[in-house]
């Protein structure tokens, strides 16, 4: 993916305009996107842009959006277009399960507020074409005026998985929304690495094309949060680029200075396909733990699940009648662990992610001079596409502004979702262990700690302050 030129100049939004060059690309086929019910993707990206200095100086505006409580949400469920309504019963279930951002229509914002949730609002006016029609643009202004001070509003949902050729128009809409309501997000989700050249709108191999797609998106749309989806579980194995996608998204989020959100697999979108080797499988609770902790390890501040409940899908988090599936019960605790650990990491900077054992595409080994190490070292294992990844991941976090060094916090993750694992972690100084259930830190009695890791699970550690 090649870099492009972004030029913001006077235009329809009090002097905001976009002039852009971008590259197009042509590779395979993004198989999920062809079903009538959004057969796979969900890569949400919450986005915003700058406000001209002269306007900001003249007009008081609400505070800019920040993540706040780390995001736990879903794709395709209550409040989502084509799904069930977000009523009080659904909101109670979502809140009890640890979800904190929910889909909604304008009429459902009161339900969102009643249950202490945050609403991602959908509306037909939230499209770039609205800005080209004075009547529609006026209706959008009225909509923003009605909802921007509603306590239930968190984000405006704009579009799912746009190609790069849509970025200029989306940048214009995001700028328009942010000018009028900087306290809320313009929510866009992005494609995964296995999208085709045509879908991405860029050219090159997987890494080149996807990197260019992300860079163009950041420069043209100026997002406040990056988000994407990647679904790797099939009936015969795991596709190989899950960690590559995490790594590329982490790199771009750090470069842009914004958080990111990962949408992970929680369903099968090809009903009755259990006999098809390449078809998606419904993950179990241990695989969901693996998705939650690996997402945390790469520094994400949000996680979403595809799907909660939606027609023509198997698995998910709730059934059509609203009764919870086994995944709901597994995620009730995992969602809270995600929020607790992500809160601890929120003020820190992700410094590095190292893998031991298998090294699938996009991963880096533990460096020889690492300050945090395992004793004994985790043995190297050969990786072959389709394998479930085995080994132990160690990610480092440090104080804001830090770009190198050992860091102060490490998240250690067991990459095997079928077997528990124990490792001994050596640190540079006395260590403390974080209890995600209680939110408390406790000393381990020295610079050496034995960690017992659940299947796909992890442990957050830090150097004692």
What can you tell me about this protein's structure?
It is a single chain. The chain starts with 5 loop residues before the first strand and ends with a strand. Helix 5 runs parallel beside helix 7 (206-221), helix 7 (206-221) runs parallel beside helix 8 (242-256) and helix 9 packs parallel to helix 10 (326-345). The strands form seven sheets. The chain has a six-stranded antiparallel beta sheet, with helices on one face. Strands 3-8-7-6-5 form a five-stranded mixed beta sheet. By secondary structure, it is α/β, with parallel strands linked by helices. The protein has two domains: 6-345, TIM Barrel; 349-463, Immunoglobulin-like. The protein has helices at residues 53-58, 88-96, 109-114, 134-147, 167-180, 197-200, 206-221, 242-256, 285-297, 326-345; strands at 6-13, 16-20, 46-47, 71-75, 101-104, 118-121, 153-160, 185-189, 226-229, 233-234, 237-238, 260-265, 267-268, 302-306, 314-315, 349-357, 373-374, 391-398, 409-414, 421-426, 431-435, 440-443, 448-453, 458-463. The chain is built from ten helices and 24 strands. Residues 1-61 have low confidence and may be disordered.
């Amino acid at each position: 993916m090649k870099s492009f030129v972004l030029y913001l100049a006077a235009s329809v939004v009090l002097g905001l305009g976009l002039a852009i060059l971008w590259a197009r690309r042509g590779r395979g086929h993004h198989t999920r996107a062809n079903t009538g019910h959004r057969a796979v993707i969900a890569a949400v990206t919450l986005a915003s842009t700058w406000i001209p200095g002269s306007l900001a100086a003249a007009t008081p505006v609400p505070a800019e959006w920040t993540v706040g409580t780390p995001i736990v949400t879903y794709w395709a469920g209550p409040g989502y277009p084509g799904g069930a309504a977000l009523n009080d019963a659904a909101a109670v279930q979502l809140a009890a399960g640890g979800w904190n951002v929910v889909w909604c229509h304008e009429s459902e914002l009161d339900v969102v507020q009643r249950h202490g949730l945050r609403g991602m609002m959908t509306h037909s006016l939230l499209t770039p074409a609205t800005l080209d029609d004075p009547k529609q643009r006026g209706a959008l202004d009225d909509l923003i005026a009605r909802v921007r001070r509603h306590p239930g509003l968190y984000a405006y949902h704009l579009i799912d998985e746009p190609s790069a050729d849509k970025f200029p128009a989306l940048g214009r809409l995001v700028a328009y929304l942010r000018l009028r309501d900087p306290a809320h997000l313009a929510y866009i989700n992005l494609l995964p690495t296995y999208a085709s050249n045509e879908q991405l709108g860029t050219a090159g191999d997987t890494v080149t094309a996807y990197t260019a797609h992300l860079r163009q998106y950041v420069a043209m749309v100026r997002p406040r949060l990056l988000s994407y989806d990647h679904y790797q579980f099939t009936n015969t194995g795991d596709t190989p680029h899950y960690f590559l996608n995490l790594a590329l998204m982490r790199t771009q989020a750090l470069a842009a200075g914004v958080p990111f959100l990962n949408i992970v697999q929680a369903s099968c979108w090809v009903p009755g396909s259990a006999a098809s080797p390449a078809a998606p499988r419904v993950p179990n609770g241990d695989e969901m733990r693996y998705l939650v902790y690996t997402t945390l390890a790469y520094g994400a501040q949000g996680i979403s699940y595809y799907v909660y409940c939606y027609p023509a899908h198997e698995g998910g988090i709730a059934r059509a009648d609203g009764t919870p599936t086994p995944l709901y019960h597994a995620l009730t605790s995992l969602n809270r662990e995600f929020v607790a650990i992500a809160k601890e990491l929120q003020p820190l900077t992700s410094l590095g992610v190292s893998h031991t054992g298998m090294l699938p595409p996009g991963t880096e080994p533990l460096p020889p001079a690492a300050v945090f190490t395992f004793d004994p070292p985790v043995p190297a294992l050969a990786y072959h596409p389709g394998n479930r990844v085995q080994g132990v991941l160690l990610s480092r976090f440090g104080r804001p502004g830090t770009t190198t060094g050992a860091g102060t916090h490490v998240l250690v993750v067991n990459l095997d979702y079928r077997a528990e694992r124990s490792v001994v972690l050596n640190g540079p100084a006395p260590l403390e262990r974080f209890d995600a259930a209680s939110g408390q830190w406790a000393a381990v009695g020295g610079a050496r700690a034995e960690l017992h890791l659940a299947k796909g699970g992890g442990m957050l550690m830090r150097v004692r302050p």
